[in-house]
Fold this protein.
Amino acid sequence: AQKITQTQPGMFVQEKEAVTLDCTYDTSDQSYGLFWYKQPSSGEMIFLIYQGSYDEQNATEGRYSLNFQKARKSANLVISASQLGDSAMYFCAMREKNTGNQFYFGTGTSLTVIP
Amino acid sequence: GAVVSQHPSRVICKSGTSVKIECRSLDFQATTMFWYRQFPKQSLMLMATSNEGSKATYEQGVEKDKFLINHASLTLSTLTVTSAHPEDSSFYICSASLSGHSYEQYFGPGTRLTVT
């Protein structure tokens, strides 16, 4: 089974609007971390936000927030007030305590911000 | 955040030659480094996990003899693509991390390899 599932290959959002990128995960581990990365066309991977499995509050980093619903095993990324520079690929990833160092990535969502 | 450098950023080589890609963590000691391969518009495919001082752990389907990984120090890992073929052309990305599930990966800027 896929560890990380991103069901939206592509998304469009109007500039200044909010957008939610979906991510669901599969793990039997109690301790794990969830990450979101942004990859612009230049290819670099940029870390955006982290949510620990024991964190009770949703993580927030500036315009990024993570809607963590543990029972549903979802970790959706919310980008508020979208900007043209937000156009990029977005990857959800997970790291489990029991599997040590390995990161599992989703297939990514291509976000396009429309002026 | 921590800085990871990767060299070269782009390389073109002829079929049959070998290419070495370096990955360095500049401001922290990385207990683990990862090597990924990414095809256009696709996700990152983990090739191998490298721990300092020990042999790399390769993912299923990745040829160990073709993709040689050396992690000689806590700040340097190298990937050598041996006897390169055009199908090895891809974007190779390294990352570095501390051990522990709460630690993020710090990615290098990637190396675009073209084999002619």
The longest strand of chain B covers residues 44-51.
